UniProtKB/TrEMBL annotation, chain A:
This is Acyl-CoA dehydrogenase. It comes from Sphingorhabdus pulchriflava. Its cofactor is FAD. Belongs to the acyl-CoA dehydrogenase family. One of its GO terms (cellular component) is plasma membrane. One of its GO terms (molecular function) is oxidoreductase activity, acting on the CH-CH group of donors. Coiled coil: none annotated. SUPFAM superfamilies: Acyl-CoA dehydrogenase C-terminal domain-like, Acyl-CoA dehydrogenase NM domain-like. Keywords: FAD, Flavoprotein, Oxidoreductase.
UniProtKB/TrEMBL annotation, chain B:
One of its GO terms (molecular function) is flavin adenine dinucleotide binding. It comes from Sphingorhabdus pulchriflava. Residues 6-118 form the Acyl-CoA dehydrogenase/oxidase N-terminal domain. Its cofactor is FAD. Belongs to the acyl-CoA dehydrogenase family. Keywords: FAD, Flavoprotein, Oxidoreductase. Residues 210-342 form the Acyl-CoA dehydrogenase/oxidase C-terminal domain. This is Acyl-CoA dehydrogenase. InterPro entries: AcylCo_DH-like_C (IPR036250), AcylCo_DH/oxidase_C (IPR009075), AcylCoA_DH/ox_N (IPR013786), AcylCoA_DH/ox_N_sf (IPR037069), AcylCoA_DH/oxidase_NM_dom_sf (IPR009100). Pfam families: Acyl-CoA_dh_1, Acyl-CoA_dh_N.
Length: 403, 368
């Protein structure tokens, strides 16, 4: 076991650091500056182009497809170093890299690979994900948006929800029902869709945080050529699983949250003189959170080691997200308490308290998005511990016969 | 980065697990308790013969000179089966104390005997209710006076490292007339505890100064492995029972209330194991990281074991409250591991006080 970089990894890290120091500062978004979303996407495209030109886009993708042909660990090193800068890297870039072209590389045709992979690596194409529906969240395969074949095209009708940044995306990855006469997982097909296609209407959802970066997407007689189908007709669920695996591993979501809170507690007046960190209950809560956060960090290191050997960590990957989301909810709640009554109505220029409030709200969606806690617990129980699967009343029933 | 056990370490774990599952099944533990045995002496001899006790003792002193991680791999297996051996007292604490603080002569005299299992050692630090690390025992000249209680495995130990006034460590041969050992009633039926009274007992000061915190850090990492192994055993036992038990016409394991309970426990076990790996790596390779990583390993392992021991019994239902079931071994051992080495308070403070940039900002100055 070695937690340090190998000599090769250390050399790569040095090279990446030097390249970032020379190139990243021009793209950094100053902290506390809220960009117009059109401008943010432009900046995101420009940064991704710079990464491509530097030779670091799609590190694990083969060179023949425009990638670097590097290792998983190199990709991790690059993202660790990149995270030192506050760069424009929203879902419009991340969904393209982590999900869309990952699915196309694995399940797509040669023509599709040529058409989509390199332009996405260059930041020329931005992407959104059109999976969830009002009645298909945790039970994703329950989706109702349908596609019917007409000549060489498919005609799509239905509604998708939670499509982050759909309003600023060039393309979407889409899963739809193409055969309602078979059980629900078997009648699905995976497409990529041009978001400028006639019949697509995007409406923003106002979230509890006040932001609107999720959308509802309505599809009315949208025409998708069969050449934009990824994988087999009826094989969409398998493609979807490739994509969701990318989502869970790529989220990097254990990012340090507790340390700043510790610093904050150490500089905040306590109840009995001294600082808030002198309180035993606050120390205990912070220490437990910090110990769990470190455990998640080293668990992620174990999973990366597995991935770098070509092993699939499967449901273990869900443990990191599960642990992060509930920890964030607890620690951001504690942060609001430390802030005192001021946290419910801070002064207009108090950006710190605003970010604490935002974390408290954001933590609620983290326990739902990318697999709700309850779904992840089922997966861990079934796939890691070998416990029985949930009773699925709809397993062998044709979709059209379901209520 | 390669954050996994090596093939050799995986093999070591398998060997230890194979031996222990054969020699230390639950019925054997029950027979030891019924016979009033303080330990499983023949298993201890066997572990010594196979080299398991000397894994982290330097080769020059009769050990195998391997790493803290190798030792942790074994501690995890011992924790898994609740073996009735004084490994925690003799190897994790006593031998490591001598390695850290002993003179070359003391090391040469005792480490080979501890490594072979010929001598059992222990570490005497508590002096009754209250803080774990008391120093009311005084060493004047070469004479030791005062009392330590409780001291684990002191009935079978020949040698004790004793925390004395001033914070130093002294070596005491327990087989002498100035030492009186009184057996206590141990909550953990598989780990005997004693009160020791010293009346002008002959003792040797160990030359190493200020090693207590490091000794405890290193021991905390090993105890975290032990607790992780035990927590995983609780998880497996609960899972197996739930798979076997039929209720309301279906398997108990098919109920989501049970699945979710055990899934949460599985996450706690993996977080604890990951922290223990890093703590062991830091103990050997990155001493600056040891205090915080040992504390994190300690806290997460105690959480996993505490919940594991409790929920295992809960999943078993009424049968879990009987001695016929095996839950009680872990339920008692959990408290023994949790209260030793300073308990949660000590490790909470240590973790917080060893965060970079925080020293000096904490007005209470609780740093250990």
């Amino acid at each position: 076991m070695d937690f340090n970089d190998t000599p090769e990894e250390a050399a790569f890290r040095t090279e990446v650091r030097a390249w970032l120091a020379a190139n990243a500062p021009a793209h950094v978004i100053p902290q506390g500056v809220a960009l117009d979303d059109t401008e943010e996407v432009q900046r995101g495209r420009a940064w991704q182009r710079a990464v491509y030109d530097g030779g670091y886009a799609g590190i694990t993708f083969p060179k023949a497809l425009g990638g670097r042909g590097g290792s998983v660990i190199e990709a991790v090193v690059f993202s660790e170093e990149e995270a030192q800068y506050h760069l424009p890297k929203g879902p419009y870039i991340g969904i393209g890299l982590g999900m869309a072209i990952a699915a196309i590389a694995k399940h797509g045709t040669e023509e599709q690979r040529q058409k989509f992979i390199e332009p996405t690596l260059k930041g020329e194409l931005t992407w959104c994900q059109l999976f969830s529906e009002p009645s298909a969240g945790s039970d994703l395969a329950n989706l109702r948006t349908k596609a019917v074949k007409e000549g060489d095209d498919w005609i799509v009708n239905g509604q998708k929800v939670w499509s982050s940044w759909a309003h600023r995306s060039d393309w979407g990855i889409l899963i739809v029902r193409t055969d309602p006469s078979v059980p629900k997982h078997k009648g699905l097909t995976f497409f990529v869709v041009d978001m400028k296609s006639p019949g697509i209407e995007i409406r923003p959802i106002r979230q509890i945080s006040g932001a609107s970066d999720f959308n509802e997407t309505f599809l009315t007689d949208v025409r998708i050529p069969d050449s934009n189908r990824i994988g087999d007709v009826g094989g969409g669920w398998g493609v979807c699983m490739t994509v969701l695996m990318g989502e869970r591993l790529g989220s990097g979501s254990h990012k340090a949250q507790v340390s700043p809170l510790l610093d904050y507690a150490a500089s905040t007046p306590g109840m009995n003189g001294g600082t808030a960190l002198d309180s035993g209950s606050i120390r205990a809560a912070l220490a437990q959170a910090m110990a769990e956060e470190q455990g998640a960090k080293y668990l992620e290191a174990r999973l990366r080691t597995m991935v770098s050997r070509g092993e699939n960590p499967g449901a273990l990957a869900g443990m990191i997200k599960m642990s992060y989301a509930s920890r964030l909810q607890k620690t951001s709640g504690l942060a609001m308490e430390l802030r005192g009554l001021d946290a419910i109505a801070p002064s207009i220029d108090d950006t710190l308290t605003r970010s604490i409030q935002y974390d408290y709200i954001w933590s609620t969606v983290m326990r739902i998005a990318g697999g709700a806690d309850e779904v992840l617990k089922n997966q861990i129980a079934e796939r890691v511990l070998g416990m029985p699967g949930e009773i699925r009343m709809d397993k062998d029933v044709p979709f059209e016969a379901l209520k | 980065m390669n954050f996994d056990l090596s093939d050799e370490q995986k093999m070591l774990a398998e060997q230890a697990r194979g031996l222990l599952s054969e020699r230390s099944p639950y019925d054997h533990l029950r027979a030891l308790i019924d016979a009033g045995a303080e330990w499983d002496e023949s298993l201890w001899r066997e572990l010594g013969e196979m080299g398991f006790l000397g894994v982290a003792i330097p080769e020059s002193f009769g050990g195998l000179g391997m790493s803290a991680l190798d030792l942790g791999v074994i501690a995890q297996e011992l924790g898994r089966c609740n073996a009735a051996v004084p490994y925690y007292s003799s190897i994790i604490l006593c031998a490591d104390a001598i390695r850290l603080a002993g003179s070359d002569i003391q090391k040469a005299e005792w480490l080979p005997k501890l490594a072979s299992g010929e001598v059992v050692g222990t570490f005497a630090y508590a002096e009754g209710p209250g803080p774990s690390f008391a120093t009311g025992v005084k060493l004047e000249g070469a004479k030791l006076n005062g009392s330590k209680t409780p001291v684990a495995d002191a009935g079978i130990a020949q040698l004790a490292v004793v925390l004395v006034a001033g914070g130093g460590l002294a070596l005491v041969d327990l087989n002498q007339s100035g030492v009186t050992r009184t057996k206590l009633e141990s909550f953990d039926q598989l780990r005997a505890h004693y009160r020791i009274d010293f009346a002008d007992a002959a003792a040797e000061m160990m030359p190493g100064k200020n090693v207590l915190a490091t000794l405890l850090d290193r021991a905390a990492v090993q105890a975290a492995f032990e607790a992780t192994g035990a927590a995983e055993a609780c998880l497996t036992m609960a899972r197996d029972y739930a798979l076997d038990r039929q209720i309301f016409g279906r398997s108990l394991a098919s109920f989501q209330a049970i699945k979710h309970k055990l899934a949460e426990l599985a996450v706690e076990v993996e977080l604890a194991r990951s922290n223990a790996y890093f703590g062991a790596w830091a103990a050997d390779e990155s001493p600056d990281d040891l205090p915080a990583s040992a504390s994190a390993a300690r806290l997460t392992a105690l959480t996993a074991f505490e919940n594991g021991a409790r929920e295992n019994l809960q999943v078993h239902g009424g049968i879990g409250y009987t001695q016929e079931a095996n839950c009680h071994f872990y339920y008692r051992r959990e408290r023994t591991l949790a209260l030793g080495l300073g308990g949660r308070d000590y490790w909470t403070d240590r973790l917080i006080n060893h965060q970079p940039g925080l020293q000096g900002q904490i007005s209470s100055g609780k740093a250990a």
